[in-house]
């Protein structure tokens, strides 16, 4: 049995090692994406003026009026003091072609006091320029920048499958790490003085044992984050009912009516304030999301600068049909079925933000450990593969000599 587990661990590990090496290192970096991005690109984060801020809703209207090709798709509803508004945009449909205008950017940094656009960038572009480096690393982490084909995000499917293999391989690895209960202490030790192959082996085995629980959490949540709708939600729904939004269940999104107009952002924010009182949401409306594809508005509730959620289960989000204003879903942390709460906890666990700064530090360390386990696993395989080749070559020589004799 053990020999079969060794083979499975070897081939599973080889199949996913490179992907985990990249995911581990990039995950260690993006645990601090906001801080690193701000340090690299102060022009994108720090407002030039210190005058009182204008209404973000008014600034969004100005942006669209100044460039009719542009449609605001994400709008912070307040800015951190001294900071820019980072506004998401996309191209409107070109009436001449029926396709969206091609823009060279999808994110704007706007001075909230003057409306000046301080910088533009394409978030997630394949670019290592200073302005786009951190978003490049972020997207590399979860999709490897692979394309979408036929409505299928190849990168997220690939990383989801890697997560599934990793989860099974982690169970195999912990079984192999304890060959004997009598010598269990060896599975936690590092032969630092021996160095060389002995240390490499211990880093791989004992290093994995020390953080095994964290590795299992990261592997499971990576599956949830990559394959939310096609895999995780159907599985969870077998055990617990799940609430839906147009983003988790596109069937809830009603196609836009050609005779109806889209609600104004001002109207949606007004609806959001009323809904917050009704649903006892303490935080103010913090961000406005618009999806033309799903004909949906979403409003997130958070204080300025807390769009990712500093701790706990994240921020509340409510959703409305963009033309009728009819509620089409809600995601309120800590509320709903057991399955809803399980799904809510996935990103906070994966990012470490569920326990704030401490969790982010743990995630960053875990990312480095994942990369180390991948590298040491490859080194161990290479050494054993060379030994097997030498052994096979020696056997052939002995056979030939025996035949000649």
UniProtKB/TrEMBL annotation:
Pfam families per record: PepSY_TM
Regions that span the bilayer: 12-32, 154-181, 209-227, 361-382
Domain of life of the organism encoding this protein: Bacteria
Region forming the signal peptide: none
Keyword field: Membrane, Transmembrane, Transmembrane helix
PANTHER family registered for this protein in UniProt: BLR4505 PROTEIN, IRON-REGULATED INNER MEMBRANE PROTEIN-RELATED
The protein's name in its UniProt record: Peptidase
Protein source organism: Caballeronia mineralivorans PML1(12)
């Amino acid at each position: 049995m053990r020999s079969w587990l060794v083979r499975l661990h070897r081939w599973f590990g080889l199949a996913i090692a490179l992907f985990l090496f990249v995911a581990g290192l990039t995950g260690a970096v993006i645990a601090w994406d906001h801080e690193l991005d701000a340090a690299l690109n102060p022009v994108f984060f720090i407002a030039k003026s210190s005058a009182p801020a204008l209404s973000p809703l008014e600034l969004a209207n100005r942006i669209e009026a100044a460039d009719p090709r542009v449609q605001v798709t994400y709008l912070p509803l307040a800015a951190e003091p001294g900071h820019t508004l980072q506004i998401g945009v996309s191209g409107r449909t070109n009436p001449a072609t029926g396709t969206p205008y091609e823009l060279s950017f999808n994110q704007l940094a706007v001075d909230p006091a003057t409306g000046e656009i301080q910088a533009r960038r394409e978030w997630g572009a394949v670019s290592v320029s200073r302005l786009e480096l951190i978003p490049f690393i972020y997207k590399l982490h979860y999709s490897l920048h692979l394309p979408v084909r036929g409505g299928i995000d190849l990168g997220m499917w690939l990383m989801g499958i890697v997560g599934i293999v990793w989860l099974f391989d982690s169970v195999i690895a912990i079984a192999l790490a304890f060959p004997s209960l009598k010598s269990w202490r060896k599975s936690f030790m590092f032969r630092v003085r021996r160095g060389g192959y002995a240390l490499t082996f211990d880093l791989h085995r004992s290093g994995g044992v020390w953080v095994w629980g964290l590795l299992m959490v990261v592997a499971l949540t990576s599956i949830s984050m990559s394959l939310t709708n096609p895999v995780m939600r159907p599985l969870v729904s077998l055990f617990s009912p799940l609430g839906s939004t147009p983003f988790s269940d596109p069937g809830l999104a009603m196609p836009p009516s050609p005779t109806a107009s889209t609600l104004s952002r001002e109207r949606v924010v007004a609806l959001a304030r009323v809904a917050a009182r009704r649903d006892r949401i303490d935080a103010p409306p913090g961000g406005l999301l618009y999806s033309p594809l799903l004909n949906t508005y979403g409003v997130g509730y958070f204080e300025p600068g807390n769009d990712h959620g500093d701790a706990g289960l994240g921020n509340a989000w409510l959703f409305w049909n963009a033309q009728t204003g009819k509620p089409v879903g809600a995601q309120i942390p800590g509320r709903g079925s057991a399955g809803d709460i399980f799904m809510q906890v996935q990103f906070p666990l994966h990012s470490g933000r569920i326990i704030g700064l401490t969790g982010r530090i743990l995630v960053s360390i875990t990312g480095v450990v994942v990369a180390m386990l991948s590298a040491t696993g490859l080194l161990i395989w290479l050494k054993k593969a060379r030994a097997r080749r030498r052994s096979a070559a020696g056997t052939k020589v002995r056979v030939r000599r025996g035949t000649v004799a």
